[in-house]
Amino acid sequence: MKLFFYLLTLLYSSFVVAQDGLYSYEKANELADKQQFKEAIRLYTFAIDSLEKQDKELNKTHLVKAYNNRGIAYGQTKNLLLALFDFNKVIELDKQQVDTYLNRANVEMSMAMFKEALADFNKVLQFKPQSVEVYYQRGMMLLFDTQQFAEAEKDLKKAAELQPQNSEILAYHALALFETGQNAQALTQVNKSIALNKDFAEAYYYRSQIYRVMNQKDKALQDINKALALAPKTPEYEALRNKLK
């Protein structure tokens, strides 16, 4: 009888611990939604500790979510190594977690781990071959971080094809075209970008650069003045205007 009572007590205690973990996980999500990340991290940690005391396989779904969301919270508080650890843990538990590969790629980019980020972007595309977000983010990394302009142009072209009404994607594709010497095509794309959003300062800045190399100084000056009107005192805009004077 005592043994039976002990087993019931043990099972009840396990249930309570698991329930406490799930409750903490839900409260952590609420705090993260309110951008109270430090407190959310504390509750995610409690949830993970509670769930890991039980059957990991049984609680795997909740553990995966808790590690992933804590990783996001760590990323928001600039604790990149801890974020990377959590995303690695998610993928260790479940290699089908597509969004976590993308989360990890963003952290890896922030840590200048571009080779690793590229591998994660490629992994996401195996699951989502038409992902605008991946083509865009990978293209931006290739354009600005590793300066692989030809590869960046391919990615941003694909992103622009998938989302032709996105003025930012069109502007950055224009820049990639410009960096690969395709000035006429770059001008076409940046014109589309400005037609969609006449308040996008970067688009005028890029078009000013294009006009400058095409020896259309008046148009270049007009565009850089417009960029500065939209984003005053931007150093690179001021530098270009000084070159055009």
Describe the structure.
By secondary structure, the protein is an all-alpha fold. The chain has a domain at 160-245: Serine Threonine Protein Phosphatase 5, Tetratricopeptide repeat (Alpha Horseshoe). Helices cover 81% and strands 0% of the residues. It has 13 helices and no strands. The chain has helices at 2-33, 37-52, 60-76, 80-93, 98-110, 114-127, 132-145, 149-162, 167-179, 183-196, 201-213, 217-230, 235-244. Helix 10 (183-196) runs antiparallel to helix 11. The longest helix is centred in the N-terminal third of the chain and has 32 residues, at 2-33. It is elongated, with a radius of gyration of 25 Å.
Question: What is the secondary structure topology, with strand pairs?
Answer:
Elements lengths: L1 H32 L3 H16 L7 H17 L3 H14 L4 H13 L3 H14 L4 H14 L3 H14 L4 H13 L3 H14 L4 H13 L3 H14 L4 H10 L1
Helix pairs in contact: 1-2, 1-3, 2-3, 3-4, 4-5, 5-6, 6-7, 7-8, 8-9, 9-10, 9-11, 10-11, 11-12, 12-13
Order of helices and strands: HHHHHHHHHHHHH
Q: Given the structure, what is the number of helices?
A: 13
**CATH architectural type of the domain at 160-245:** Alpha Horseshoe
Strand content: under 5%
The level-1 CATH class of the domain at 160-245: Mainly Alpha
Radius of gyration: 25 Å
Task: Write the CATH fold name of the domain at 160-245.
Answer: Serine Threonine Protein Phosphatase 5, Tetratricopeptide repeat
Provide the helix percentage.
Answer: over 70%
Q: How does the overall form come out from the CA principal axes?
A: elongated
Q: Return the average pLDDT rounded to an integer.
A: 91
Largest sheet: none
User: CATH superfamily membership of the domain at 160-245, which one?
Assistant: Tetratricopeptide repeat domain
Question: Which structural class matches the secondary elements?
Answer: mainly alpha
| Termini separation | 94 Å
Could you give the count of β-strands? Answer: 0
